[in-house]
Specification:
By secondary structure, the protein is α+β, with helices and mostly antiparallel strands. The chain has a domain of 47 residues. It has 2 helices and 3 strands, in the order H-E-E-H-E. Strands 2-1-3 form a 3-stranded antiparallel beta sheet.
Length: 92
């Protein structure tokens, strides 16, 4: 090959001879619980215009995201997104 370029070749990586271990089990468990939360920290109040054959209504649904809010919406309606409002968190 001519010029300043050289052909790159793959290199082999040595395998780790034994399993990776750690003594920090408590912080790993805490990190896993934090990562696998089922309830998101933030909630919003979604406002939809619900349309059906007989009329319309404005519906408010509290959910973490618009997709979850649409899953909680009543059946038989066409839901038109109109607003996402923050929900105030009150600590006791």
């Amino acid at each position: 090959m001519t010029g300043a370029y050289q052909k790159a070749t793959p290199r082999t990586v040595r395998a780790v001879p034994r399993r990776l271990t750690t003594n920090d089990r408590i912080s790993i468990e805490a990190a896993m619980k934090e990562h696998t939360q089922t309830h998101p920290k933030y909630q919003y109040r979604f406002r939809f215009l619900a349309l059906c054959a007989t009329g319309s209504a404005i519906i408010h649904i509290t959910a973490p995201d618009e997709h979850a809010a649409r899953e909680m919406s009543p059946t038989g309606f066409v839901m038109v997104f109109t607003a996402r409002l923050p929900v105030e968190v009150r600590h006791a």
